[in-house]
Write a structure and sequence with these properties.
Number of helices: 11
CATH class of the largest domain: Alpha Beta
Distance between the termini: 10 Å
Number of strands: 12
Helix content: 25-40%
Radius of gyration: 21 Å
Structural class: alpha/beta
Number of domains: 2
Largest sheet: 9 strands, mixed
CATH architecture of the largest domain: 3-Layer(aba) Sandwich
Shape: globular
Length: 377
């Protein structure tokens, strides 16, 4: 259970495309790493050492600084048995905790159902980005998706207030009366009403926000600034979901991956600096995950889809350090002869956050009991 006096809040950051964990936390003293990655490998002298065997990518320096301060738990070797290398299927598995069949209920949606069983707050979960992630989707459970917080709302392009009011009344009428029959139409009707309620509440957040923290100019920094604005507005949001794309680096990994790590780590650092400056950080924990890792050997330009990867749990109440085991670099243990093995199941990490931070029973959400870690102070 969380020990903060305020209700615990979870921020999820999805690294879409399959982050190269081996080039994020680097086994820089292992000859096989350098032999396997003549093109994309990071030179040992450029690595920011964590210990005698592992080091940070130099472009993740802000994340290393937070790790050194004890605020980052690195989950090594995260994955699941018989990992799927398809982006769509792999992400679907992470979103629904169903590796063996097609899941219909997102794990965040199920968490929201536990936190707000009567759906009293349409802003219990807010996603920033294009579209609602499968993780947040659950019929009957509200989740708000926002592309641009500053312009979020209904009929905002209508300049005349009277015209906008009349248009909104028509829009509300479409959803407040029966628009059809059956599960699909009921879902659309409820979704429409939730959008109206959410827009009216979220428009308060930008006006209330004041901060001296300057966020970097990147999409993930913009999203995390929006998270901070809504969190600081105290609208009752318990789960935030964000996405940072571009990690499918089959080619041109050398220029692309360092840029992404720099954007990500700078944005996270700015986000927590902002919250701490306003005494709003202790109730927040962040999970950073990706759908799979990359293969051990590079392909002369990038890296292809692999298995075992890495994740991060970040926050003031986190006991920083390394959790689980870094996948073996012994070729005899490589999955399919070319992949890092997974050493801990992602469902156990979800379970860690659900039970130890959010205070809900994880078993029905992750569909079983899986090994947990203990990263909270």
């Amino acid at each position: 259970m969380a020990t903060t006096r305020k209700a615990p809040v979870l921020v999820v950051v999805q690294l879409t495309g399959g982050n190269d964990f081996m080039n994020t936390l680097i086994p820089y003293t292992a000859g096989i790493y350098h032999d396997s990655r003549p093109v994309v490998g990071i030179k040992a002298e450029d690595v920011l050492p964590l210990d005698d065997t592992l080091g940070w990518n130099p472009h993740a320096a802000p994340l290393k600084a937070m790790f050194d301060d004890g605020d980052v738990a690195v989950v090594q070797g995260i994955g699941y048995p018989n990992s799927n290398r398809s982006h769509f299927r792999a992400m679907d598995i992470w979103h629904t905790c169903e590796p063996e069949k097609i899941g219909t209920e997102g794990w965040v949606g199920q968490l929201v159902r536990e936190l707000d069983p009567r759906s009293e707050n349409v802003l219990t979960a807010v996603s920033f980005g294009q579209g609602l992630p499968r993780a947040c989707a659950l019929p009957g459970i509200p989740a708000t998706s926002v592309g641009d917080l500053d312009n979020y709302g209904l009929m905002t392009s209508i300049g005349d207030e009277g015209q906008r009011t009349r248009a909104l009344e028509i829009f509300k009428g479409m959803y407040s009366t029966p628009v059809g029959s059956g599960i699909v139409m009921d879902y659309l009707s409820q979704t429409g009403l939730d959008v109206i309620k959410g827009a009216d509440e979220l428009k308060k957040a930008p006006a209330m926000y004041k901060s001296d923290v300057e966020y970097p100019q990147s999409s993930i920094a913009k999203s995390l600034r929006d998270v901070a604005r809504v969190h600081l507005a105290a609208l009752g949001t318990r789960v935030f979901y964000t996405q940072h794309g571009g990690y499918d680096n089959h080619a041109n990994e050398v220029p692309t991956h360092p840029r992404l790590l720099k954007e990500l780590s700078e944005a996270i650092q700015a986000f927590f600096t902002d919250l701490r400056s306003q005494n709003a950080s202790e109730e927040v924990a962040m999970l950073v995950f990706t759908e799979f890792g990359r293969r051990i050997r590079d392909n002369a330009s990038g890296t292809d889809h692999g298995t075992g990867g890495g994740a991060f749990i970040i926050g003031d109440n986190v006991k920083g350090g390394l959790y689980a085991e870094y996948p073996s670099l012994d070729p005899a243990r490589w999955v399919h002869g070319e992949d890092l093995e997974h050493t801990i199941d992602f469902r156990g990490i979800y379970g860690t956050l659900l039970e130890q931070w959010m205070g809900v029973d994880a078993t029905p959400i992750v569909n079983g009991n899986f090994e947990q870690i203990y990263p909270f102070a």
